[in-house]
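REVIEWER CHECKLIST
Item 1: Sequence provided? yes
Item 2: Single chain? yes
Item 3: Sequence as submitted:
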Amino acid sequence: MNENDFELVEGSGNVFRDLGDTEADLKHAKAVVAARIIAALDNRGLSVRKAAALTRFAAADFSRVRNANLRQFTLDRLMKMLAALDADVRVTIHIGRSDEGKTALAT
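Item 4: Structure as written out by the authors:
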């Protein structure tokens, strides 16, 4: 196999959209917020149990976020978890037509 056997394809910035997922923007937004939750836990050196004690969210919820098991979470619940960990969080949502190929969430 050599370098001519590969084709380089630039992604949209949303892997779910690139894979044709019908809920691509929502899944991408959840993943972005979950990544920020994990970063907040890591930056503060919090275990899931310590985070649960500080925020009143279940330790199992933080464990699911750490394991990228986001199916049962709504976006607003993830945002509330993040806000409980980091009072300085600001979320900006850009709304556009789905055919523009734009990512809908930045934190």
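Item 5: Key structural point noted by reviewer: The first strand starts at residue 92 and ends at 93.
Item 6: Recommendation: ____
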